[in-house]
Amino acid sequence: MKKGSISIISILFFVGIIISCNGTKTPEKSGTPTDSISSTKADSMGLAVDNMEGSDSLLYANEDAENESLNDIRFANFKDEDWLDNEYIRTLRQYIDDFNNRKIEDEELEPHRSLLKGKFVIGNVEPFMLGGLFIQITFIENPENVFSAWVYSDVDPEKRTISNYSVHHVRLEKEKLEFTREQILQEMEIHPELKLW
Question: Considering the entire predicted model, what is its pTM?
Answer without folding.
Answer: 0.67
